[in-house]
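Loading example: each entry is read as two labelled lines plus one structure line.
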Amino acid sequence: MQILQYLINGISIGAVYAIIALGYTMVYGIAKMLNFAHGDIIMVGAYISFCVTNYLGLPAFVSVIAAMAVCTLLGILIEKLAYMPLRGTPSLAVLITAIGVSYFLQNGAQLIWGSAPKNFASIVPLKPVFLAGGELVITGEVIVTILASVLIMVGLTLFTTKTKIGKAMRAVSEDRAAAQLMGISVNNTISMTFAIGSALAAIAGVLLCSTVPTLQPTTGAMPGIRAFTAAVFGGIGSIPGAMLGGILLGIIETFSKAFISTQFSDAIVFSVLIIILLVKPAGLLGKQIQEKV
Amino acid sequence: MKKLLNNKNTRSNLVIYLVVTVFFLVMQGMNMGGMLTSSWKGFLVPICVYISLAVSLNLLVGICGELSLGHAGFMGIGAFAGIVVAALLQDAVALEPLRLFIAMIVGGVLAGAAGFLIGIPVLRLRGDYLAIVTLAFGEILKNIVGNLYVGLDAEGVHVSATSAKFTLLEGGKMILDGPVGATGIKKLATFPMGFVLVLITLFVVLNLVNSKEGRAIKAVRDNRIAAESVGINVTAFRMKAFVVSAFLAGMAGALFGLNYSSMAASKFNFNTSINILVFVVLGGMGNILGSVISATVLYVLPEALRSLEDYRMILYAVVLILVMLFTWSPRVKEFVSVVTDKISGIFKKKEVETNG
């Protein structure tokens, strides 16, 4: 029963990683850049939700919508101002710019909200469910997180396979030049990707802070790195891969904390990542592309 | 000698050594003359450490073309190995600079060994995957170093992981205390030793770059498949660069660790790795002198902006983004050239008018 409890908790934290990883993977797949500022957008989303519920007194549902709206705008703005001018330059230049944006967001948040941690009240009104005579506790947050991640993944998969914009996204990720020749606006498609990724980051931020209730300017950094490894783990660029990678990473993390060692959980998580990459260099569900000479 | 001076590489190398030496002499002179405030004095050793880290990372990122996000991990190994060695040799080696130097060498060797072990799996990967794995290894190294307990007493050295499983005798001393890190370190680091470190780093990297090995490494960077097809053993050369880079980072780390009275493993996190990478990229990839200058300027910049208090890091972020846009973006560059043309055009017109 204990194992089942850990499994559920692991899936829950993994689902949050998965939602963040989806944003990473989409941006990487389409813009071919590592958006290191993604983790900080999570933090901004959580702060917006916090402000809307605590200062304006609006219901939780509205706060999530507001967080999504602000993060979407922020994502598009960052892309237009910082990343778009650098399109076609070496990926390292874009990477460093993304790091600059990340510093900017963290320190901006510190200026606005201060560095003292805020106590984030969970936005999930559901009561915990007790199963097996109280041995198994499933909190409302766990249910909502898992449901949300499943919905998001299904939604994204449908979006990328059925809609015109989604198909354009896949075309751009496959071959940017060819997509442009087919009349797809690459800039709009990339902006769209950032918008979706940032909206997802806002949801992830609210869910993350509902589970782990402290909120400070550096809140997004570590989950961001974890989610990035999750995206690589599952095969970067692949939507089901990000989902699988996130959930596996969450399970591995919870289990290693529970059964092996709390202190070394980071080391264990990253070791598993390395082993996976050695066996399958493109990640679990990634496509292995043959190099052409 | 004349023939040597005519060599382009030798000349540019001499310029680098000259710049570093002049900088050292000026700073040391100001230091001796008491012209430096105590905060500036505190910068001297870290500047040397970061120059050395930036140059060694440049060997990987700029010369070898491998993005590494775990440089701080090697620095951490070097720092903690250096602290332990310096503490163990406290009585055995009385001469402080010698003790410091031994600590730096041991730190370097251990970091180099870690680099070798990590290199075996890592160097099978490429590009972003290599980056993420070096990131992972950096975190693992930080995690392990942050959970080591090392104590010294009359019975000898005690080592354990995850928790202090030993009790020290009377008069014993904890050298490393897990997540708390090392406390009560005897500060051994000096600015001249920092200068020696920079010289060693420059000597190793510059000689490597301009050697047969260096040309092979650059060939691998520019076109791996072509390099492989002319018989260059790609993995062996990448491994050499990786181990040398880790060794130098370890030496720098040992000096860094022995520059403070306490040191925690959390210092050697992802952010530190990223900072070093920023030095390298802003200095120009593959440009050693650029790394030296940018490490110095960018280390001092946030400190110099301290008077702006809360705004300093946000300003640093803006500077970072703007520098990247102005150096890389084709559109911004075009805009800048149009503006400068217009400005110079105005001046030219005026000249014509006054002449006519």
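Chain B touches chain A through 48 residues (CB under 8 Å).
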